[in-house]
Amino acid sequence: MISITLIVLAIFEGDLFDLLSLNPDKVMSGEIWRLLTSNFVHFGWAHTAMNTAALLLCTLAFFTDDSTKKFLSLFCWCGLCVGLGIYLLNPEYTPYAGLSGVIHGLIVAGLLQTHAYPIWIRLIGLGLVIAKLIQENLPGYQATDLQTLIPAAVAVESHLYGAIAGLLFIAGNWLFVQFQRGK
Questions:
Q1: Is 63:71 a contact under the CB 8 Å cutoff?
Q2: What is d(CA 117, CA 103) in angstroms, rounded to the nearest whole number?
Q3: pLDDT tier, 175 (very low <50, low <70, confident <90, very high otherwise)
Q4: How many Cα atoms are found within 13 Å in the side-chain-facing hemisphere of 78?
Q5: Does residue 24 contact residue 87 with C-beta atoms inside 8 Å?
Q6: How many distinct helices (H) and strands (E) make up the chain?
Q7: Exposure of 132 by Cβ count < 10 A (0-12 exposed, 13-18 middle, 19+ buried)?
Q8: Chain segment 79-119, per-residue pLDDT in tens
Q9: pTM here?
């Protein structure tokens, strides 16, 4: 469903990008939906295709046994956290668009919560994600391969915000389950 939405929005990109992308000035004037909707629009077809493929792979790898409600809650939480992070900490990304921050949140949450893979595979996966996030956020890092496909700066900070959001979601879910068991 989300993947179809991404593709439909890409078809009508010219009409909807300006309405849905994250522009800090427009958020300040009351268009707060942009904090979430900016995750659904992209900078062209290559950007849309990469993020849609990553979303599908991530969903199949980690979330086939989860309820739709839980998955959508996680997705929206990560999207909102990414939007807020970019809005508050990286207003230089104007406009901001793309789903990669949310995807990083889904990957972290998926690795932490799934039981479909042995713990050692999950730990290696988490280690690789952490190493990627550290590398991306080092001074001087350039996403040169991606820059050739996307006509905008790659907002690597969004990956960090998404990963933190995924971690917080799983921690909050674990605390909620513990609280329910204690009743």
A1: yes
A2: 19
A3: very high
A4: 32
A5: yes
A6: 10, 0
A7: middle
A8: 999 999 999 999 999 999 999 999 999 999 999 999 999 99
A9: 0.94
- What is the per-residue DSSP string for 39-79? TT--SSHHHHHHHHHHHHHHHHHH-TTS-HHHHHHHHHHHH
Six-digit token string for 62: 């980690």
Length of the chain: 183
- Residue 22 pairs in a beta bridge with 96
Q: Are 83 and 34 in contact (CB under 8 A)?
A: yes
CA angle 59, 11, 42 (to 5 degrees): 60
Domain boundaries, the chain: 2-182
Determine whether domain 2-182 maps to CATH 3.40.50.2000. no
Cβ count within 10 A of residue 144:
8
- State the angle between helix axes of 2-11 and 45-62 in degrees (0 to 180), rounded to the nearest 10: 180
Whether 52 contacts 103, CB under 8 Å: no
Output phi, psi for 96, to 5 deg: -105, 140
